Amino acid sequence: MMIFFNRVFMLFLLVSISVEWVNAQTVSTCGATAPELPNQTINVGQDGTLPLPPLSVESNLPDLEYAIQLVGLPASDTLGDQIVGFTKNNTFNLNDFGLQTNDYFIVTPIAYDLSQSQQLVDAIFNGTFLFSPCCNFIGTFLPNTCENLEAAGIYQGSDVQGLEDILKVIFTFVGDTTLTASVLGLASWLDGFNEIAGSLPASCGGNQVPICYALSTPRRIDFNIKVLLEGAYLNTGEMSTTLNTGRHLLPGQTPSGNLATPTPAGQPYHRMPWNYTGMEGANWTDANYSPDVVDWLLVSFRVDIEKNTEIGRRAALLLKDGTVEILDDFELPSNAPNAMYIIIEHRNHIGAMTPQAIMIVNNTLTYDFTLADSYNGGGTGTGQKQLPSGKWVMLAGDADQSDFPSYDIVGSDKISWEDNNGAFDYYTAPDFDMNGDVNGADKVFWFDNNGVSSRVPK
């Protein structure tokens, strides 16, 4: 009889919930290498910084929720750690689950069939599932089963509204109604259920792999960075703001020319090869730009020179005196080092990187690219160009930024200029002097810098 009861209970679990668990991934992603969240909100499966697999449910189970499970430090074993809540929305606020700074937690997508779960609960109460009444039979082995379900607020199938209610039923059977059992424990209960019921295909849960994250306090620092663009540089020692104040062609502005094509709002580095998804400049208009703005830059920070050591990046505004204005809501990870490399990218100039990691002093990261050459690979490549005035500037002429493994100015950049020569009133890369027109003056920059190559790793 006990064996038969176990089969009844296992069948209930099988039809209700299916999880495909990858234990090795849990251990490897939970611990010192767990990604740190830069704020209190998690967007599962959409934020490119979070390595969660696709969440498409490759099964006949129509419902999906996310289980939030608090794990200890170090997180080498998730058995017995606490489930702190569930959500049906893949975007949610971690404050809702009581998580605190330095907590490690697991997000696990779990597929289930709500309708069948409700039917099975009704069957337990009404005696329509193998026994009549089921509660009397189950109560022989687990006294007060129906009473315990009612104490958990479950009187009938319609009271089961989601995964939390389903687990309340399960935990009632195992004598625990506090939701302290782990998702890993749940997965262990599901082992072998396909063999018992034979009604659902193996791997019916799809790509439901748990991923561990670390909740941290973001590090906010001040920035004091300066850089000059050769194409926009004027003899006055400052840069032209023509794209902004003259032609009104920066993203989101209303062009001053009647025939001009407006540039869509939002930072311009969302496309290849940068693929930066930041929302800086979204919904901006002329009113958001000060008269000192020259253009947008992409600023990133690395622990070492290689691209895979990047710890943050941000679209920023370049002012005419060379000041890089990083919007004040930017935050670095809490574990960011006290020294880092700074990389400046522009849509038609060769990127520049500091020749060494720069120390954060008094909570401020300070560097002036205009005072000295930038990283040049130990003299094997080009960093910046020094002007007769003594100032160092980023080199103009790199219209085709798909170059790899670093930046260069070559024939493909000239082709981009040729294809656009004669265009006017456009915010476009071959406009090297950044005045809104593509003409012979722009080709001069390509001609002077043709053959230059950087050593900053992309």
Percentage beta strand: 15-25%
Distance between the terminal alpha carbons, to the nearest Å?
66 Å
Q: Could you give a short account of the major beta sheet?
A: 8 strands, mixed
Number of strands: 18
What's the mean pLDDT score? 75
Helix content: 10-25%
**SSE order in H/E notation?**
HEHEEEEEEHHHHHHEEHEEEEEEEEEHH
Question: Regions with pLDDT < 50 over 5+ consecutive residues?
Answer: 1-33, 45-59, 73-80, 129-142, 176-209
Briefly, what is this?
This protein is α+β, with helices and mostly antiparallel strands and 458 residues long. It has helices spanning 2-16, 23-29, 114-126, 134-141, 145-151, 163-173, 183-190, 193-197, 242-246, 411-420, 440-449, and strands at residues 17-18, 36-37, 41-43, 63-71, 82-87, 91-93, 104-112, 211-215, 222-226, 293-302, 310-319, 324-325, 339-346, 349-353, 358-361, 364-368, 385-386, 392-393.
Provide structural commentary.
By secondary structure, the chain is of the alpha+beta class. It folds into two domains: 2-215, no CATH class; 222-449, no CATH class. The chain has eleven helices and 18 strands. It has helices spanning 2-16, 23-29, 114-126, 134-141, 145-151, 163-173, 183-190, 193-197, 242-246, 411-420, 440-449; strands at residues 17-18, 36-37, 41-43, 63-71, 82-87, 91-93, 104-112, 211-215, 222-226, 293-302, 310-319, 324-325, 339-346, 349-353, 358-361, 364-368, 385-386, 392-393. The strands form four sheets. Strands 9, 10, 11, 12, 13, 14, 15 and 16 form an eight-stranded mixed beta sheet that branches. A hairpin with a 2-residue loop joins β15 and β16 (364-368). The chain is elongated and about 90 Å long. The termini are far apart. Residues 1-33, 45-59, 73-80, 129-142 and 176-209 have low confidence and may be disordered.
